[in-house]
Amino acid sequence: MTTTANESRALDEIKIGGLGSSRKRVEDDRFIRGKGNYTDDVVLPGMLHMEILRSPLPHARIKSIDASKAWAMPGVHLVLTGEMMATRNLAWMPTLSYDTQAVLATDKVRFQGQEVACVIADDPYIAKDACEAIEVDYEPLPVIVNPWQGLAPDAPVIRDDKVNQADNVVYNWEVGDKTGTDRAFAQADVISKLELHYPRSHPSPIECCGSVADFNRATQKLTVYMTTQAPHIIRAAVAMVAELPEQMIRIISPDIGGGFGNKVPVYPGYVCSILASILLERPVKWIEDKTGNLISTGFARDVYLKGEMALRKDGKVLGVRMHTDADHGAFFSDAQPSKFKIGLMHSAFAAYDIPAAHLTARGVYTNKAPGGVAYRCSFRVTEAMFFQERMVQAAADDLGMDQADFRRMNFVRDDDFPHRTPFGFLTDSGQYAKCLDVGLKAIDYENFRKEQAEARKRGRLLGLGISTMTEPLGAGNSREYDILGIKMFDSAELKVHMTGKAILRTGAKTQGQGHETTWAQIVAHELGIPADDVIVEEGDTDTAPFGMGTYASRSTPVAGAAVAMVARKIRAKARKLAAHLLEVSEEDIEWELGRFYVRSSPQRGVSIQECAMAAYSNMPDGMEPGLENTAYYDPPNLTWPFAVYIVTVEVDPDTGVWDVLRMVAVDDCGVRINPMIVEGQIMGGLTEAYAMSSMQFITFDADGNCVGSNYMDYLLPSAWETPGYELHSEVVTPCPHHPIGAKGIGECAAVGGPAAFVNAVMDALSGTGVRNIDMPVLPDRVWEALTYRRDVSGAPPIRQD
Q1: Cβ-proximal residues to 607 (8 Å cutoff; 6+ apart), any chain
Q2: Is the pLDDT of residue 4 over 70?
């Protein structure tokens, strides 16, 4: 076949693994063969092992610590206590929220599982035995396990280490238009009220936290292999805490066995292993066990809501009031942007056209583990969307309106973008009503309502729950977003070799998102280099450009944008090389995927690979050799994906057991880089949503004992319990400011999904007078609600009856 002069010679993007290709994850080649390289796989010559002694009590004065028996055990090299740490100014460390946190307890312990001492020995078994030989004399103190106990007039002050801390209040914060909201409530026909608790949960990654610290006295270089989602932030934190020059610190984050936000903070174990390596001048490995991970590392949620909605009789929402009380545990160590004390809770109701809203928030210290992390969400957005969608259902019920109709009436319309939310965010695009229509059609909404009514006549309880939400991803622009003063941009460095192969390094850090696959697809889209010819590296601060890491669904919105932008810088230089090779001016050069050509003579062209060779062998006079560049991307705004989740359930009225009949998900996440990976992210998020709604939580008894520090109590769904999901991708609204139109998807299902499951159960219980059952909606809670016709709270302390 003869190619005409006007016929495009562009490469087939799907064939080269570009945007839209369901390319298999390249990293899975090593994972399914057991060839992953995790922190615990790191073995260095002369390496010692560290174990941590944790407090069995939630609140107690430390009267004395006797470590003599531990020191005397053969194979023990070092025992660290808070007193020893204090002599090196390391007993306390700063948190990501400008508070302080004990590395090893000195004056008292403030939560069960707090780090009290460390032992470094020849192997982990000796270290564990030596920990058990340490004798600690505790004086028990009164225990606080919820904000109301902490706010009581006679409550003991947990943070008595802090100057001028006279109570247990961490902060008071507010946002919104109080005056306008008060006016809206004065005009309301109906005021709908709802009180909820989003229980404490834990990301529970399959790999716990750990580190291998290796200080080389001869070079003064500290290398730390560790389970971190944010290597560069950890390097900066280590430099500040350990008072080491930053350029002499190398953080390597190898393969990570799941993170979900749990591996963002700096934990005491990291600091202790680093100090031990410096003191002993030998590598020191610390690998956390499962109970240690569940009982002490960054939790999520544990927020209480008092919500109100001002409504007109016709269904229009006039205003919203929200008050939240957040249980922060013993230290305020949330990983979140500095200026937002309750994270992005005020992203609530962004999908709805509401004239006025006001949010007040209060944080409280309690005797529980610290560290409210962004567990698969953008800084409290999961709580915001759960509270929002539970309030929306309650409001529709109070008005006697259909759930879908109430949402549709109050949605932001397609022609209203850009839209300023009642709390001040700017959303830029969406097709909310269309997504809802797709979901309702898929679930066969009208017929289900008829089946539900018929079933109820026969004593069967069917329910349908809807959750619709848009969440802010990609925090965020440097005007408003920072962590510890560091702006939340991200970066990418791309080097194209002379043969046209490439290596890409970013400031992000994958923990299962598939960066090694999708980042290469963005390069293929921008340059026409086949994705198989692009190697992606992340996680080494000595080689990767500075970045803020991966959490809060920042990967595609920020780091992915940086990849696109650096590829465009490469293409701009390649254009100059193409003009040189084709002996025309740069203005005469056109681009199609993988190829530059002369506008007036399309058959004359050069490939991107030929340009790469010329960058090293035939560049024009005055041009710097090589084809590489770096881009730092500061997002102009957040991205706003939208989703509709619809669940149908059947509740057994005799036992309270509920079963999922169907689950439909409609996600508009903008341009999908790899549809297969997107679907995997949605399914994983929905599974976590189902777990949160049905079984997964950490609670405490009246004595402060943690219930949920093992997998007998902290339940995770297996394939047996997990329902099936029906995914829909026909609605695509590109983000107008993102380089490739992507919005992100990693969190959406985990953020919006829980309310759909809970709303479905509550819908099945409609007519009983029950307005709320706190998550997880356990069968005994449903039975209690049905039997006694009352709401059921899940707030700690756990009931003993």
Answers
A1: 500, 528, 594, 595
A2: no
Non-local CB neighbours of 166 within 8 Å, separated by 6+ positions = 157
Length of the chain, please? 801
Q: Does residue 145 have a pLDDT over 80?
A: yes
**In the structure encoding, which two tokens stand for residue 391, read together?**
């309030």
Note the pLDDT of residue 7: 61
Residue 260 near residue 203, CB atoms below 8 Å: yes
Instruction: For 519-553, write each residue's pLDDT tens digit.
Output: 999 999 999 999 999 999 999 999 999 999 998 88
User: Burial letters for 563-595: b for 16+ Cβ neighbours within 10 Å, e otherwise?
Assistant: bbbbbebbbebbbbbbbbbbebeeeebebebbb
Q: What sign has the CA pseudo-torsion 715, 717, 720, 722?
A: positive
Provide the phi-psi class of 151: left if phi over 0, else alpha when psi is between -120 and 50, else beta. Answer: alpha
CA–centroid distance for 772 within its chain: 27
Average pLDDT over residues 702-729: 95
3-state secondary structure of 207: coil
Residue from 101, 229, 393, 513 carrying the catalytic annotation: 229
| 800 band by pLDDT with thresholds 50, 70 and 90 | low
662-674 pLDDT tens trace: 999 999 999 999 9
CB 748 within 8 A of CB 670: no
Q: What residue has token string 């169907």?
A: 662
Report the range of poorest mean pLDDT among 98-102, 240-244, 751-755.
Answer: 240-244
| Residue 144 CB-half CA count within 13 A | 27
**Catalytic: 377?**
yes
Q: Which of 376, 554, 771, 781 is catalytic?
A: 376
Distance CA 477, CA 474 (A): 9
320 within 8 A of 181, measured Cβ to Cβ: yes
The answer to whether 551 and 261 are in contact (CB under 8 A) is yes
Mean pLDDT within 405-430: 97
Cross-strand bridge partners of residue 645:
467, 665
pLDDT of residue 373: 78
Cα Rg for the chain, rounded, in angstroms?
28
Structure-token pair, residue 197: 């608790």
Terminal CA-CA length for the chain? 82
Q: Which one of 131, 377, 435, 611 is the catalytic residue?
A: 377
State the CB neighbour count (10 A cutoff) for residue 94. Answer: 15
Which DSSP helix (H) or strand (E) runs through 482?
A: strand 482-483
Residue with token string 């409504």: 311
Tell me which of 747, 748, 771, 781 is the catalytic residue: 747
**What letter would DSSP give residue 352?**
B
Q: For residue 554, give the amino acid letter.
A: R
Q: Which amino acid makes up residue 573? A: K
376 given a catalytic annotation: yes
Residue with tokens 């539900």: 452
Cβ of 172: how many Cβ atoms within 10 Å?
10
